[in-house]
Amino acid sequence: MFNEYKKIYTEFNDVPKLEITTKKPFLLEVNKNGVKYEFFVRINKKSSNLLILGSGAYKPSTMTLPVFQRHSWIDELEESMIFYNDPTLYLDHLMLGWGFGDLKEHYLKNISMILKDLSDFFNYKNENIFYYGSSAGGFMSLMLASMMKSSTAIVNNPQTKVTNYYEVHVNKLMKTLDITKEIAETEYDSRISVLSSFKKHNYIPKVKYLQNSVVEHDINNHLIPFVSQLKEIDESVLTNEIQIDLYFNRKLGHNPVGKRKTIEYIKNAIN
Q1: What is the pTM (predicted TM-score) of this model?
Q2: Is 135 helix (H, G, I), strand (E, B) or coil?
Q3: Which domain holds residue 98?
Q4: Domains contained in the chain, number
Q5: Which residue in 12, 16, 20, 204 could disulfide with 32, CB within 3.0 to 4.6 Å?
Q6: What domain of life is recorded for the organism (predicted)?
Q7: For residue range 175-204, what is the model confidence (pLDDT) as tens digits?
Q8: In the sheet that 50-53 helps form, which strands lie side by side, from edge to edge?
């Protein structure tokens, strides 16, 4: 699918030294301790904004890694765009990994560091960087925005705490990591909870949160706990706006709104 694009390989510590001259979309593979971090990049130097997109659930039976969900949208938006794959999915044919990584490395943190180097290379200011994703991609967008001050998270039906999601997916990840849910919630809480990440980084990013109000699981296990627990964070950190937009669509359920409405929501959030 991506054979037509140039592929650039580099090591994690060498990302700041990259010399990227191609003006066309390209693939980037960054190696760190044997783990490959993969990106699909389309830079539009006419735009001052950078949109970074993560993926939701992946189906190993019908799809191959890496996954760059919505990559076909590169001509639909004028913003520069970077799509990232979650290397956690390589661990055991997982459908969802939430950027957790292995017990030694938090893959999402490494992705954040790579994205920071890339955004610096292409001269994008943090306040002009926007993370978008739905479901697990929404979770990772919230987490990544908490790691990059002044950036914005744009999310649709996200998880806000991994272990509050459906057990079949949570248990698969726990089994792959060979830990219990209780250990994940104590020793690795800042990897699985958006609120814990906010606390760890002492920062709450700007958030545009789009939620289907008919999905009780999302409302009760992710939206309500997220909002109610914000009060646990020091008031001095609560300086950015968290905008929650509800819609009603029984047919879509947990699935995100369609392409047209998603693009419209992203454009409105950016502008």
Answers
A1: 0.96
A2: coil
A3: 6-270
A4: 1
A5: 12
A6: Bacteria
A7: 999 999 999 999 999 999 999 999 999 899
A8: 6-11, 26-32, 35-42, 80-84, 50-53, 129-134, 152-156, 206-212, 242-247
